[in-house]
Amino acid sequence: MTTNPPSNVDRREVDKFDRIARLWWDPKGKMGMLHVINPLRSQFTFDHVDVRGKRVVDVGCGGGILTETLAKAGADVIGLDQSELTLQVARRHAAQAGLSIDYRLQTVETLAQQEPGSYDVVTCLEMLEHVPDPAAIIQACAQLLKPGGHAIFSTINRNFKAWLFAIIGGEYILRILPRGTHDYAKLIRPDELRSWAGQAGLKHLRSASLMYHPLFKRFRVAAGKEDVNYMMSCVKEA
């Protein structure tokens, strides 16, 4: 018997990531740039919360690049994704690394219904722009958190600069991401993300952006800036 997928899952997006599942842990492949920026995104998380001994959910975990970093830092971490092929890759790599990570083919909305107020940290990086209703994802992330818990989001801005650099430059010219990774209409402005977070009971703490230098092929973190690829930390108010 076939069941319909949850309404907040875009099967076209899942199919897209199914096709590149085997590329997640190839640092020289199409997903290699995620390995480059992972230390920067991880440090942004660690600058706001010590995950050691904390219950953490990594929403849209993909192949587990960030998830493994959280586990190595001492977190009790769950990774959620909608691509079974990608989760198979993540489970296999974690097993080879000797890491105990609970990877689940489950939506964050379902987990939030089952275990509200049970987690210390939720990370949701480069995922919001791939779902039909990102506000619902943020609401579920907030629902999962204990009072005082932290949420870390990252996504891509919706403006001309993002279209030019992230999509045209990143996917078609520099080819640091597979073509078709992002749909401009689904990109999210910082004011939208802050508004959805506030409606969910999350207080915005800080923002930062990953700034790419094409000549040196390096990223740096620009604190307080909301540019093309930006991150936000939030805390659940008591």
UniProtKB/TrEMBL annotation:
InterPro entries: SAM-dependent_MTases_sf, UbiG_MeTrfase. CDD domains: AdoMet_MTases. GO terms for biological process: methylation. Its EC number is 2.1.1.222, 2.1.1.64. It catalyses: a 3-(all-trans-polyprenyl)benzene-1,2-diol + S-adenosyl-L-methionine = a 2-methoxy-6-(all-trans-polyprenyl)phenol + S-adenosyl-L-homocysteine + H(+); a 3-demethylubiquinol + S-adenosyl-L-methionine = a ubiquinol + S-adenosyl-L-homocysteine + H(+). S-adenosyl-L-methionine binds at residues 41, 60, 81, 125. One of its GO terms (molecular function) is 3-demethylubiquinol 3-O-methyltransferase activity. O-methyltransferase that catalyzes the 2 O-methylation steps in the ubiquinone biosynthetic pathway. Belongs to the methyltransferase superfamily. UbiG/COQ3 family. This is Ubiquinone biosynthesis O-methyltransferase.
